[in-house]
Write a structure and sequence with these properties.
heterodimer; A: mainly alpha; globular; B: mainly alpha; two-stranded antiparallel ribbon; 2 strands
Chain lengths: ~500, ~500
Amino acid sequence: MILVWLISILFIGGIIAWLSERVNPYYPRLIALITVLLECVVMLNLLGAEPATGGWIASIDAAWIPRFGISFYLAADGLSVLLLLLTAFLGVIAIGSAWDEIKDRAGFFYFNLLWTLAGVLGVFTALDLFLFFFFWEVMLIPMYFIIAIWGHENKNYAAMKFFIFTQVTGMLMLVSILVLAYFHSIQSGFVSFNYHDLLTVETYGPLEMWIMLGFFIAFTTKLPSVPFHSWLPDAHSQAPTAGSVILAGILLKTGAYGLIRFAVPLFPEASMSFAPFAMTLAAISILYCAKVAFAQVDIKRLIAYTSVSHMGFVTLGVYAWNEQALQGAVMTMLAHGLSAAALFMLAGGLQHRIHTRNMSDMGGFWGKVPRMAVVVLFFSIAALGMPGLGNFIGEFLALLGAFQVNIPLTVISALGLIFASVYSLWVIQKIFHGEYVNSEFDDNHLTDLTHREMVYYTAMMIGLIWMGMYPQSFLTLSQPVLIDLISSAEGIVTSVVRN
Amino acid sequence: MDITLADLIPLLPLLITTGTVVVSMTVIGIKRDYGLTVAITIAGLLLAALSAAYLMPSTNLQVTPLMVVDQYSLFFTVVTCATAMFIAILSYPYLANLDDHKEEYYLLLTIATIGAIVMVSSNHFVSTILGLETLSMSLYGMVAYPVHVEKSARFSLEASVKYLVLSAAASGILLFGIALVYAKTGTLEFASVVNVPSITEGLGDGFTIAALILVFVGIAFKLSLAPFHMWTPDVYEGSPLPVTTYLATVGKAAMFVVLLRFIEASEALAFDSFILVISLVAVASILAGNLLALLQSNLKRILAYSSIAHMGYLLIALVASYFVQGSISVEAVTIYLVAYVIMSAGAFGVASVVSSSEQEFNSIEDYQGLFWRSPWLAAVFTGMLLSLAGIPLTIGFIGKFYIFFAGVEAALWVLLAVLIIGSGIGLYYYLRIVYCMLLAADIEQGFEVSIGRNISSHAVLAFLFVLLVGLGIYPTPLVTIIETISAYIL
C-alpha cells in the first residue's frame, strides 16, 4: 500500500500545485517541495521495513484488467528502494534548481515535474509488464511538456525528437512484451503479464533473440547508448535546468534499471550470447561519446555526451552479469545521477546568469565566481572518476566485473577514464582559467552561488563522498537482489543447456 | 411469416429513431422552431440509445431475414445513437446563426442515423445497401447544407458533389461485387463462400476472389482506405464541422461493422490472395495516411488523413481474426472502433465548439496558445490527440494494445512493423498541433472562448473526455462488455 501512496502523493500534489497557482504564483513551488519532502519521509519508512519472502520490502497486487491477466502489481526490493531514494532526492534538487528559474506558468511546470517523478516511481516499482509499459510511457508526456514549454531556442525540435525516439522504441518493447505474454498463454494456458510468471516462460533460439532486442532497444534508447543516443544532446541542451536534472539524474536510469530487471533476467540465454555485442556497443559509447564531448562548445551538449559515455559503463557492467559488475552498474547509476544532475544545474546556473552556453565566449571566471568554480571542479573530478567519490566505485567495480568476462573490451573501455579526465579538465580550463573577457555577454548578473544553491550542491557533494567512502551502505541494499537475479538467470541457462 | 408485436420490440431503437423523424417533420410543418426541433431530435436519439442499451443483455434475434438484432448490433446501435446525439448537441450552436432554414438539418441527421442502425444490424446484402444508401443520401444533403449562405458555402457544394459521385461509383462497385457473390452462393445473406457448391457451373476460386475483392473495394471507398481515399480530405474540409464529425465517426463505424460481419461470415480470409489484398490496402492506408498528414496545415485535412491511417490499423486486427483462436481480434476491432469514435468526436468536437457556420477555425495556427487562453479546451484537445497517437492514460492506447495483441498472436510481423512506423510518423503531426497550442498566445487572431455561450457542447466534450481518460485508466468495464458481445460475431 505504501507504494500506492508514494505514487499517488505525487499525482495529487501535482494537481494541487497546478491549481494553487490561481491563488498565488509562489504557491506551486512550495507545494511541490512539500510534496517531495513528504515523499522522502514516506520512503524512509520503506527503508526501515523488513523484507518479506523473496526480498520484497513492500508490494501491492490488485486485479486491473482480468481479461489479459493484467494486475496493478507494484513491488519494491533493495534495488528499487535505492532508485526510489535517488528519485526523491533529485526531485528536491530539481525543484530547488527551478525555484528562481521558472517564473512563467509555474503551476503547470510543477505539475509536470511531479507527474514525471510519479511515472518514474511507477517504472521503478511495477512488476506487471503492462503496468511497467504504462508508466514507461506516462513519464514521457509531462517531460515532453517541460521541454516544449520551458525549453530554450530549439525546443520544439528537441522535444519532438525526445518523444518520438522513446515512443517508437517503446512500441518495439510493447510488441516484445506481448509476444512473451502470448508464449506464456501457450505454455501455461492463461495470459499473464506478471513478472514472476513471465520469468518461467521458455523461449527458444532466434525468436528469443528478437524479443530480447525489443527490450534492449527500448532500454538502450533511454539509457542511452550508441547508436540510439542522438536525442539526448538535443533534449538536454534545450530543456530547462530542472528538466535536465530529472532527465540525466533519473530518466536515464530507468533504461539501466530495465536492463537489470527485465532484459537480462527474462532472456538469460539470448542475453548471454548477445553480451559481447552489447559490451562492444558499451565500449563504443564510452570512447566515441567522450571524443564527441571534447568537440562541443555548448556546455550542456558536452555534459550530455559525457552522460552517454558514463552510461556505457552501466551497459558494460550489466552485460558482464556478475555480482561485481552489477554492483558497479548500480553504483554508477546512483553516482552519475548526482554528479550529472549537479553539472547540469551548474551549466543551467551559468546560462541563467550570462544567457549563453557557448564555452568559447567564457574564460577566467575563477576570479568572478570562486565558489562556483570550486563546485564545478568538485563535480568534474567526481565525474572523471577520482577515487574517494561515488563514480570511481561504480566504474571501478563495473570494470573489475567486466574484466573477468571480456578482457580486451574492458581494457578498451578503461581508456574512457583517461578521456574523461581530458574533457573534464578542459572544461575547467576553458571556463574558469585564462583571461576574463566579457565582450560576448552581459556580465551584470554573473554573481557567485547563493547560499540556497550552496545547500543543494553541498547535499550532493555529501552524497558523492558518502558513496565513495562508504559504498557498503548502498551495496548491502542491492546485493541480495542482484545475487537473486544472477542465480535465477543462471538456473534457466543451465536447465536449458541440460535439456 | 407473420410479424407479431413481440418481433417489433427488438427493432425499438430503429422505430424510435424513425418516429423521431416523423414527429420533428410534423412539428416543422406546423411551426418552425429551431430549439424545439433540436430538442425533439436529441430526445429521440437519447431514447433510442437507452432502449438499445436496455434490450442489449437479453436480445438475440434474427428479425426478418434482413436484420439481426444481437448484442453486437445493439451495442453499436448505442454507440451510433449516442454519437449522433452528441453531434446534434454540437450542431445546435454551430448552426444557430445560419441564415437559412436550419431545422431540416436535424431531419437529415436522424435519417442518416436510421441508415447507420440498419447497417450495424445487417447480415444481408439488401439491408446493407438500404442502410448504406439511407446514410449516404442524408450525408450528401448534410455536407451541402449551408450551400445557400455565401460565407459558409465555399467548398460545401464541391464537397457534396465529390462525395456523391465517388460514393455512387463505390456503390456501383459494391453492387457488382454483391452480384458476383450471389452468382456463387445463391443467397444475398452473408454466407460462407468457401467450400459451398457453386450454384452456377464452372465458377472457380478465381471468380470468388474477384467477387470478394469487388465487395471489399466498394466498402474500402466508404472507409476511405488507400488507394480509394482521394475524396476524404476534400470532403472533410468542405463539410460543416459537425457533418465532418458525423462522417468520421458514425459513417466509418457503421461501415466497418458491416465489413467485419461480412468477412467473418463469408470466411473470405481463407483465400491467401484476399488476405494479401487486405494487407496491402492496410499497409498503403497506414503509410499514405500518415505521410500525407505530415504535409497538411489544416486541422480537418490532418484528421482526414489520420483517419485513413486508423482504418488501416483496424484492418490489421481484421486480418488477424483469421489466424487467432477465439474472439480477441474481433474484440480488437470493436474496442478500437469505439476508441476511434470517442477520440474523433472529441477532436472534431473541440473545433466545432469554437467554430460556427459563419466562421470555422480549421488552421493549426488558429489554435496557437490555446493552452493559455482556454486550458480546459486545450486539455480536451490534447487528450484526444494523444489518444489518436496511442499514448497511455487514454482509450486510444487500450485500442492500440488490443491491435498489437491480436497482431502478435497472429504473427503478422510485417503489418506490426508498419503499424509501429505509422504510429511513429503519426506522433509528429499530432504533437505539432499540441506544440502549437503550447506556444504563447497571439492576441490578434483566433476565436473567443467562452464556456457560457454553449454550455451543452462543453458538457459533451467533458463527457467524451471522461470516457477517454476513464476507460484509458480502468478499461475493465468496456473490456468485459466487448468480450461478451464479440462472441456473437463468430
